[in-house]
Specification:
The complex is a heterodimer of chains A (311) and B (307). Chain A has 12 helices and no strands. Chain A is mainly alpha-helical and 311 residues long. Chain A starts with 30 loop residues before the first helix and ends in a 16-residue tail after the last helix. Chain B is mostly helical and 307 residues long. Chain B has 12 helices and 2 strands. The radius of gyration of chain B is 20 Å and the shape is globular. The chains are: A mainly alpha (311), B mainly alpha (307). The interface between A and B is large, with 58 and 55 residues.
């Protein structure tokens, strides 16, 4: 069990953050992020109205397929839910920092709502498919979700840019690629509609992470770059390569029910990837992320990944 | 203000499962749905080109810029602090409806800050900080974040004091502002903000309606104390209305700016108009809490007397 609880990089000892609200900057400073905020407002949608729930035809699927897909979509709701406490925490954290940029704050206010819609859609589709499942069966697998990202976002010992790099650019970046895969393989109209919306929102969320890092990279010193590097390594090695998003990577087969369910969901066109497809996505994503971080002056190591060799 | 209290909810590890996402408080889930349907964008929902500054004197514009900047500072407080309540709802695994609703409430607060900022800009320029340092303290110490993360303060006490008392008082003033604000752009902004605020207030009452039947006398006493503190020590100390604040150069300057903005019809009110509204709000809040078994004490203020 201990192996599944994430190790965290060594932290600095720092004093609690004290908010200095004034001067209160509300003018645009990071224009690309302000644009993302405006784009998010324009792209607003309503899970009730924009998903064709009534067109779901349960008769097209076997009971076994529906049960499997209900579990796949429940798992998605569990993962998506992480954003509901995390986004307000990172929002408050950025408010406590003293660089004064309002654009990330505005953007995160919208991201929080979009995450609620994502949870709602995954939950509701799981329910339509035969019943939302409230928890993973295996208690060890349950622990993988209890990362307390919101607590970490508040921790002044974690540099905000390191948090954004690890948990937005990397974790949400991989998530986006996996969702693009779910969408490519989905044929059910409700699954397609949900996944299209989620992918569109997630594209903005991930873009936000990389733009934020690019804007701030010029102010990094060696110590900051090392902290960012350590946090990214932690996110990849301790979370992603242990199955935070790819259930087949969970140690000791603790998520085998999810892996089996995803295979059947993929086959039924209800929105999932096969293990082989996820292997390709993960490998490609890490290569791309390594190149992008290299461009920001952060060199990532290769990661040992069991049967996958070195990634 | 420090980020968190000495021992906070954040000291407890996350325990996500079982993860209930069903409808547990239908009224609040309905408010969430209604909020999704009624989203608006400050960039496009306001006829910004209709702002005609040539109709106003320099003094009026300066006062109105300050008024709308101050509104933006106030709305920003809800962005910087209230999301802590969302963390609390998640950490304590309260009804999922609360968590869903609060995500969109935070977005609405961002819209409000943005629209007030844009209005100040249109009037000549947003002002980044209070001129008077005494007032800076008043708008910088919202205090919700600390309360929200403090396990010693019940969620019911926070919601009753912050929403059913403070937001309710602000809401009544909003209704009044819409009646007296003649500038069509300012009026439109106030209407759009109020449309959101209706839901924010309804959320508080719906939550308490759900919780009160299960609360003990001792728990209700805690709620009563929190509401009395909010009205007596925060509202009657001028948190929303400068004329209620202790007399000092800062509060006098704010009142003067409010009067000029009010006379120009650009969106503020003044003591003589606001006082009866404030009194009626407190009386109504008292009456609405009586069925809960909460009987608020009599408050006193030099400008109001006994209330």
């Amino acid at each position: 069990m201990m192996a599944m609880v994430a190790r965290r990089p060594r932290r600095r000892s720092v004093a609690p953050l004290i908010e200095r609200r004034f001067p209160l900057h509300l003018e645009p400073a990071l224009y690309s992020i302000r644009e993302l905020y405006h784009a998010a407002k324009k792209a607003k949608w309503d899970p009730e109205k924009h998903i064709p729930w009534r067109s779901f035809d349960a008769a097209r699927y076997t009971a076994e397929q529906r049960k499997a897909a209900a579990l796949s979509w429940s798992r998605r709701a569990w993962t998506e839910y992480g954003g509901m406490p995390e986004t307000p925490a990172i929002l408050i954290r950025i408010c406590l920092e003293h660089n004064g940029e309002s654009d990330p704050k505005m953007f995160l206010c919208v991201r929080g709502t979009e995450e609620a819609w994502h949870v709602e859609c995954c939950y509701r589709f799981a329910d339509e498919l035969g019943g939302y499942v409230q928890a993973p069966r295996d208690p060890n697998y349950q622990q993988l979700f209890n990362q307390g990202f919101h607590r970490k976002a508040f921790d002044p010992a974690v540099v905000v840019d390191a948090y954004i790099a690890a948990h937005v650019a990397v974790q949400r970046g991989l998530e986006l690629e996996l969702y693009r895969g779910y969408l490519r393989h989905a044929t059910d109209p409700v699954a397609v509609a949900i996944l299209k919306r989620l992918v569109q929102d997630k594209e903005r969320h991930v873009t936000f992470g990389w733009v934020y890092l690019s804007e701030h990279a010029k102010s990094w010193n060696d110590e900051t770059r090392e902290e960012i590097r350590a946090e990214v390594i932690h996110a990849v090695a301790d979370l992603e390569l242990r199955g935070y998003h790819c259930a087949w990577l969970v140690p000791d087969d603790a998520a085998r029910e999810i892996v089996a369910a995803d295979a059947m969901t993929r086959q039924a066109g209800l929105g999932a990837n096969s293990v082989d497809e996820e292997r390709v996505i993960l490998t490609q994503f890490l290569a791309d992320a390594r190149a992008k971080f290299g461009g920001l002056g952060i060199e990532l190591p290769r990661f040992p990944a069991g049967t996958l060799g070195e990634l | 203000m420090t980020a968190v209290a000495a021992r906070t909810l954040l000291d407890e590890p996350e325990s996500r499962f079982p993860l209930d996402l069903g409808i547990r408080i239908p009224k609040i889930r309905e408010l969430y749905r209604s909020a999704i349907k009624n989203q608006w964008d400050p960039q496009t929902a306001i006829p910004w080109d209709d702002v005609d500054v040539s109709r106003y004197t320099e003094a009026q514009l300066k006062a109105a810029r300050l008024y709308w900047s101050r509104r933006a500072w106030g709305e920003y407080g809800a962005i910087s602090e209230s999301p802590a309540l969302q963390i609390r709802f998640c950490q304590e695994r309260l009804a999922p409806d609360l968590r869903f609703f609060f995500t969109i409430r935070t977005q609405e607060e961002a819209r409000h800050a943005e629209v007030c900022y844009l209005m100040a800009e249109k009037l000549g320029g947003y002002i980044k900080e209070p001129v008077q340092t005494a007032f800076q303290g008043a708008v910088a110490t919202h205090g919700v974040r600390k309360m929200a993360l403090d396990p010693a303060i019940s969620t019911e006490a926070i919601i009753a004091s912050l929403v059913c008392a403070a937001e309710e008082i602000a809401f009544d003033v909003f209704k009044h502002l819409i009646e007296i604000t003649r500038n069509p752009v300012a009026n439109k902004i106030l209407r759009l903000i109020m449309r959101d605020e209706v839901r924010h207030c309804a959320f508080g009452w719906a939550y308490m309606e759900e919780r009160v039947p299960d609360m003990t006398k001792a728990e209700l006493e805690v709620v009563k104390n929190a509401v009395e503190t909010m009205i007596g020590k925060v509202e009657l100390n001028g948190y929303h209305a400068a004329w209620l604040a202790p007399d000092n150069p800062a509060s006098r300057a704010e009142m003067e700016a409010d009067r000029l903005t009010y006379e120009a019809g650009l969106g503020a009110t003044v003591e003589e108009d606001e006082k009866p509204i404030f009194v009626a709000s407190v009386k109504r809040i008292r009456k609405q809490m009586e069925p809960w078994g909460i009987h608020l004490k009599t408050f006193t203020h030099p400008k109001i007397g006994e209330l």
